[in-house]
Amino acid sequence: MKETEVTTYILSAANGDEIAREKLINHYKPYIINTVGHICKRYITWSDEESSIGLLAFNRAIETYDVNANKTFLNYVYLLIKRELIDYFRREQNNAHIPIEVDATDNQLTTNVYDIEKSMNSYKESVQREELIEEILELKNTLLLFHIEFEELEKFCPKHRKTKMNLLKIADDFIRDSELVESFSMKKRLPAAKLVEKYGHRLKTIERHRKYIITLIILKLHPEWQQLSQYIEIPLESEDKS
Amino acid sequence: MKSKTYKGIVVNVTDEKISLLCKNGDFKNVPRSKSEIPRIGQSYTHIEKQSFQLNRSVRYVSLVAIVFLTLIGYYMSTFIKEEESYLFAVDINPSIEIYTDENFQVTKMEFLNKDGEIVVNELRNKGAKITSILEEIITVAINENYLSETENGLVNLTVIPLENKNELKLDEIEETVRNSLRTNVITADVSVDNGSKDLIEESRKVNLSINKYQLYKQFRQKGIDVDVDNLRENPIASFMDKFDETNTTIQQDADNNENEDKSENILNSKDNPTQKAKQEDNKEKSNKSTIDQGKQENKPSEKIEKNKKQNNQSENQKSTNKKVTENKNTGVKKEHKPIDASQQNNKNRHEKDKKTQEAVNNENERSNANKDNQQPQEKIASPDSVNGKEKANEVNENQKNVNKKTEAGNQEQSKKNEENPKEVEVEKGKGRDDE
Predict the structure, then answer these.
(1) Whole-angstrom Cα distance, residue B142 to residue B110?
(2) How far apart are CA B27 and CA B215, in angstroms?
(3) Residue B71 pLDDT
(4) 3-class secondary-structure state, position B422
(5) Do A151 and B29 touch (CB under 8 A)?
(6) 3-class SS at B50?
(7) B172 neighbors B330 (Cβ within 8 angstroms)
(8) Of the ranges A165-169, B102-106, B365-369, which is most confident?
(9) Mutation choice for B interface testing from A38, A130, A156 by most B CBs within 10 A
(10) Average pLDDT of chain B?
(11) B187 pLDDT exceeds 60?
(12) A104, A142, A152, B409: least CB-packed within 10 angstroms?
């Protein structure tokens, strides 16, 4: 989702487009849950009360987000979620549920916000981070279409540099072949047999690293994810250097 | 410990793991600490301590193995200790220590000097009973010329019970040693003694065999300096000369104070002085062939007669002397056993010689101490006297050899005899040990 795309969705959702709102929420769900967990300093699932507070805050962020303001949407969401949670914690305090860390995080937040507003560097950084978060969220959603989770990717990672080079080569070959790419994005499946047929790669290698190859292909198909793309290209460069 | 660092951006956070996208394009799941929820997109560094998993298992295995080995070692050591209940220290010159179990089955043998090593290596059956081992040691010692027919040897045996019970019969042990000596026609003094555990430690300190240590102790009591190294490598017998000489002077004083009975015993027990006396006698042998006691007495006795003119009772005196020494042997085994041996080995020339010498000495002594007269008649039939007569000539020859060696001492002794009869007696007792 590009930034302009996001703003249009936000605007339409704020004007009562439920589908756009639903799309936004779905897209930012991982971010919301992660933010809530980060603020609460414990792992939060969707069955926790804090997560619904986070969702409510996100919902309000859609309605109240000022597109023309000098804030990124994600940062705004973060602020809202944090405030909502702090309110929630204060309410809970009366019931003797005291998360001790709240005060500390509160201070951190104000200084953080202050810093962001004051310094261009930190602003750029934060923007970069927001972009990275966006990219990760999009990657995550895309991978979900292929039934791939981040956690399981570790298993399919190549252990040796040679294999990694080999896999990158496979992904490059794949992208160049429009026919393969088409079937790939249509069927959400890696056409391994055709790939082997056309380019003579070893089927065993492809099978062993199937999900990693899919991730590579997805990343290569989305060159607009600049930051994430860096992570993939680096091994090539380092290889060249060495 | 090695550690590996993973640095990357957080792409996903779950209950237990954080998924990282590392700079090299790898995806890595790292464990999440409970208090930490990194934000998505945040850069995150994880340091993984690499504990050697293989090594860990190896460590446990080795630990178990060590425990196991120590346990086994412990049981083994206790087991071995239990096995050894007696220590037999044998000194001929070869010094050997034999450890046996309760049933006198040999468990271990140690040699304490080079000669001992030779003998131990010669032994064939090292797990036999103590008696057979002792016999074998003696035969080996004879084969290796530590004991010979021509020389009078000395076999020292000290038995030390390592456990508190002592069911040992010293007499039996002594008997076996004597028997094996007899079968090999060897003349040797045998001394069997009982020791205590303390002796072992003390002797170890000085690095002497137990028997030699006892000798060493005696030397020291008498105030004599002995070179320990010398004592270690040389047979005990060679040191007895020294010991006797010093003994005489010391014992003289003691004798003077003691009862007359004791003085008799001392006289009887000391054979060597007789030898010296014999030397003088030998020179005179040729002159007088048969005199006072013509039937049984030999030339040496004749000589003695000449010298002291009291030959009449020489035979009787000899026998009495022997018996007296026997009595002593039972009481004080070490000092007087040589006499027992001589009685048993009637056919050995040396012993015969000694006896004849003893007789001579006794005569001398009698002149000094009249009390001996009471006993002689009872023991007339002693075999020694008979043998002594027959082999008198041979004896004389042997004596001459001996005499040459000890001439100087004899001269001194003769002087002493003139001065103080008791001294002579004492010297005789010590001289015997030399043989």
Answers:
(1) 19
(2) 87
(3) 92
(4) helix
(5) yes
(6) strand
(7) no
(8) A165-169
(9) A38
(10) 65
(11) yes
(12) A104
> In whole angstroms, what is the distance from residue B45 CA to residue B7 CA?
4
What are the residues whose beta carbons fall under 8 Å from the beta carbon of B369, sequence distance 6 or more?
Answer: B260, B263, B264, B267, B421, B425
Given a contact cutoff of 8 angstroms between Cβ atoms, the answer to whether B391 and B354 are in contact is: no
- Within 8 A of A238 by CB-CB distance, chain B residues are 24
Residue B70 has a pLDDT of 93
Rounded to an integer, the average pLDDT of B103-107 is: 78
| Distance of alpha carbon A183 from alpha carbon A174, whole angstroms | 11
Choose from B6, B11, B12 for mutation: most chain A CBs within 10 A.
B11
Predicted pLDDT of residue B327:
46
B167 touches chain A (CB under 8 A): no
Architecture of domain B2-50: Beta Barrel (2.40)
Among B residues 22-61, those touching chain A with beta carbons less than 8 Å apart: 22-29, 32, 34-42
The amino acid at residue B380 is I
* Best mutation target, A74, A154, A215, to test chain B (most B CBs within 10 A): A154
Residue A225 burial (CB count, 10 A): 22
- Collect all residues with Cβ–Cβ distance below 8 Å to A226 and sequence separation of at least 6: A131, A135
DSSP state of B8: E
Count the neighbouring beta carbons within 10 Å of the beta carbon of residue A145.
11
User: What mean pLDDT comes out for the span A223-228?
Assistant: 82
pLDDT on residue B333? 42
Nearest CA in chain B to A39: B37
Q: Which residue matches tokens 């996100």?
A: A58
Nearest CA in chain A to B41: A133
Strand order in the sheet with B153-161: B106-111, B95-100, B86-91, B153-161, B188-194
- CA torsion B229-B231-B232-B234 (nearest 10°) is 120
In the block, residue with structure tokens 């069927």: A187
Write out B189-228 in H/E/C secondary structure.
EEEEEECCHHHHHHHHHHCCCHHHHHHHHHHHHCCCCCCH
A234:B35 CB<8 A:
no
Q: Tokens standing for A45?
A: 């699932």
Q: Which residues contact B49 (CB under 8 A, 6 or more apart)?
A: B1, B3
Residue for token digits 């997805």? A218
Distance CA B137, CA B416 (A): 41
The tokens of A239 are what?
Answer: 């290889």
B299/A contact by beta carbon, under 8 A: no
Pairwise CB contact (< 8 Å): B37 & A41:
yes
Reduced to 3 states, what is the DSSP secondary structure of residue B92?
Answer: coil
- Chain A residue with the nearest C-alpha to that of B40: A133
Q: Does the beta carbon of B13 lie under 8 angstroms from any beta carbon of chain A?
A: yes
pLDDT by residue (tens digit) across B368-401?
A: 555 444 444 444 444 444 444 454 555 555 555 5
Nearest of A102, A75, A81 to residue A36 by alpha carbon: A81
Q: With beta carbons less than 8 A apart as the criterion, state whether A171 and A184 touch.
A: no
Domain ranges of chain B: 2-50, 86-213, 236-434
Q: ipTM value, please give it.
A: 0.70
Q: Averaging pLDDT over each range in A92-101, B221-230, B232-241, which range is the top one?
A: B221-230
Alpha-carbon span B8 to B45, nearest angstrom: 6
